[in-house]
Design a protein that fits this description.
alpha+beta; 8 helices; 8 strands; SPOR domain-containing protein
């Protein structure tokens, strides 16, 4: 019986060898190919490639393309509708600028401490204590939260004693005029003063309530998105 089966087994082996040619890889998805060919994480020398916690620890630059900011009419309408609801159903027009200058204090301010100092929000000593984390944007207090559906970029803050500061940067497809009107109305309803000015490319709105203060700087980018910097102290 064994001698009878041996020729059959040899024949099957030959067939397998002929059909086992390497597949043509020209049509393979390069992303899938890279994933399949990547060395296994069980190799201790390669364990550092695991970026499972990269979003939490800042494990280096992003390797994927960042999706573009939404700017469709539907997105604009949804953001403005949400802002109107937050404001209680009505929004007065933004106050007219009371002053103007050729340059903005933010033209040379890049870091959060520099921005807070340039906008005169909090003291320089407090600004030096700012640290970066996305949680600060979520910890903004009313009435100066991020404009509805705004996409947050920079997010810094401090809750040190006597130094309650926030410096948040975000973009929105809503027009600068609408953004300024929203924060002017929100601030006024909460008892803050409001003074609007033009400074270079920035539209500035600033106000105080006792020891608390805020500043909103908004400018129109080349892609028609509004770039907004929001800074608060003691709020």
């Amino acid at each position: 019986m064994r001698r009878a089966l041996l020729p059959c087994l040899l024949l099957l082996s030959a067939c397998d060898a002929q059909s086992g040619d390497a597949p043509d890889t020209d049509d393979r998805d390069p992303v899938a190919a890279a994933a399949v060919n990547d060395p296994l994480m069980s190799d201790p020398d390669l364990a550092g490639q695991n970026q499972g916690g990269a979003a939490l620890i800042g494990g280096g630059p992003a390797s994927a393309e960042i999706p573009p900011d939404k700017s469709s009419k539907d997105e604009i309408d949804a953001a403005k509708a949400a802002a109107l609801q937050i404001a209680g159903g009505s929004l007065a027009a933004a106050p007219l600028p009371e002053a103007s200058s050729g340059t903005s204090p933010l033209d040379t301010a890049v870091t959060a401490p520099a921005i807070a100092t340039a906008l005169k929000i909090g003291s320089p000593a407090c600004a030096a204590q700012l640290d970066y984390t996305a949680l600060w944007a979520a910890k903004l207090s009313a009435p100066f939260e991020v404009y509805p559906r705004g996409h947050v970029g920079q997010s810094a803050g401090s809750d040190a004693k006597g130094c309650r500061l926030r410096v948040i940067g975000f973009v929105t497809p809503v027009a600068v005029e609408d953004v300024i009107a929203f924060y002017a109305a929100r601030g006024k309803a909460a008892g803050f003063t409001a003074m609007r000015s033009k400074a270079g490319d920035d539209d500035l709105l600033q106000g105080t309530r006792g020891a608390a203060s805020y500043a909103v700087a908004a400018r129109l980018r080349d892609d028609r998105m509004s770039e907004v910097t929001l800074a608060t102290s003691g709020i």
